[in-house]
Amino acid sequence: MGRLPMIIVVFISSFSLLISVNASDGIRQLRFDKNKGEFKILQVADMHYANGKKTKCRDVLPKQVAHCSDLNTTYFIERMIQAEKPDLIVFTGDNIYGTDTTDPVASMNAAFAPAVSSNIPWAAVLGNHDQESTLSREGLMKHIVGMNHTLSQLNPFGVDVIDGFGNYNLEVHGTEGSSSGNESILNLYFLDSGDYSTVPAIPGYGWIKPSQQFWFQQTSMKLQRKSKAPGLAYFHIPLPEYSSFDSSSYTGVELEPGNPPISSASVNSGFFTTLVGAGDVKAVFVGHDHLNDFCGELTGINLCYAGGFGYHAYGKAGWSRRSRVVVASLEKKSNGSWGAVEFIKTYKRLDDGNLTVIDDQVLWTKTPSGNGR
User: Fold this and answer.
1) Between vectors from CA 187 to CA 150 and to CA 94, what angle results, nearest 5°?
2) For 24, left (φ over 0), alpha (ψ -120 to 50), or beta?
3) SS3 at position 212
4) Residue 30: Cβ-neighbour burial (10 angstroms; 0-12, 13-18, 19+)
5) Using H for helix, E for strand and C for coil, what is the string for 82-147?
6) Is 269 exposed, middle or buried (0-12, 13-18, 19+ CB in 10 A)?
7) Which of 75, 188, 192, 357 is the most exposed, having the fewest neighbouring CB atoms within 10 Å of its CB?
8) In whole angstroms, what is the distance from residue 115 CA to residue 49 CA?
9) Contact 38, 327 (CB under 8 A)
10) Is pLDDT at 234 greater than 50 in this prediction?
11) Each residue of 56-88: pLDDT tens digit?
């Protein structure tokens, strides 16, 4: 992206929000668009937001340096919201870069401002850098949960013991007035993948703990008793299984300089096996490794990166920041009504002059027997 033009804060009030409100408890219910039969999710990974226009960009071209700041990240989100008009915005951690943040609350408010002003529902999890200022992970999630238009939750209701903060699920119901209008036909899982290991003998990053996996299993079983809806999972740190691919078996790129180029935890907590055993999750979406943006299928589950979004995050000069979009589409019945989810696809947009679309691919398709491929 070249020089940042004068920032125009876009207030998007005319979008048709695919939510309803349960009058008895005030819960906003996500649902599919009754005209298109679609539900669209915009993933924003690794904003690394700090102090707005005072924060300089990292790893950009020389001609961009003088005019590049956190505001470029803001402008990119605004452009993506305008272009895609998503039904849900998901922030997958390292939303702020705590080390360089003088006021974490102000930084979070600024980072999430485009989502809040759009009136579009949004959800967030934490990464490994969010808490490196003056707020704890609990404090950060408590603030996020209190922001406007967010569906984020501190932790599951009724669960007394669970590791981390920001473990929750969201249900996406069928189109309004349809036979599936009162049931979830797409299930979304959000988990706190932690920050760094707290076990002295185990170096490196955190991981999804047994208490979280137990909650996921119980929630998945409960939802699948209602319907055989496909699921998607969002968290920050990639699973060790992301190392299972090479360039012949994924769509996208793997450009991280590390060896290996996957910055997962140094132990395998078994969450991938848990996902496979549950059977409903068709794709996992993470951030963390900014120069990886691929999707690869392993044992029926697509493991996907979003690619780095933020301009204060490390990147690669000349390699565009990017964002991932996921679209779930319903099958059209012979009578014109909408049925279950027929397929789930994804693509990425680059922060260039045209918001170029790349790597359009189908992640999952319903077979005639009702099972995914």
Assistant:
1) 45
2) alpha
3) helix
4) buried
5) HHHCCCEEEEECCCECHHHCCCHHHHHHHHHHHHHHHCCCEEEECCCCCCCCCCCHHHHHHHHHCC
6) buried
7) 357
8) 14
9) yes
10) yes
11) 999 999 999 999 999 999 999 999 999 999 999
Q: Which amino acid is at 141?
A: M
> Which pair of tokens denotes residue 212?
């979280």
DSSP assignments along 7-73, one per residue:
P-----------EEE-TTT--EEEE--TTT-EEEEEEE----B-SGGGSBPSS--HHHHTT-BHHHH
**DSSP per position, 334-352:** TTS-EEEEEEEEEEEEESS
Q: Residue 70 is encoded by which pair of tokens?
A: 């956190």
Query: Amino acid identity of 184?
Result: S
pLDDT at residue 2 above 60?
no
CA distances from 268 to 8, 93, 191 (A): 45, 20, 16
| Res. 4: pLDDT tops 50 | no
Residue 242, helix vs strand vs coil: helix
**Is the torsion defined by CA of 67, 71, 73, 75 positive or negative?**
negative
Note the residue count of the chain.
373
> Which amino acid is located at 22 in the chain?
N
Tokens of 186: 């797409």
d(CA 221, CA 227): 10
In Å, the largest CA–CA distance within the chain is: 61
Res 262 pLDDT > 80: yes
For the chain, the 3-state helix, strand and coil shares in percent, each to the nearest 5, are 20, 25, 50
Q: What is the pTM of this model?
A: 0.92
Rg (CA), the chain: 19
No. of H helices and E strands in the chain? 6, 15
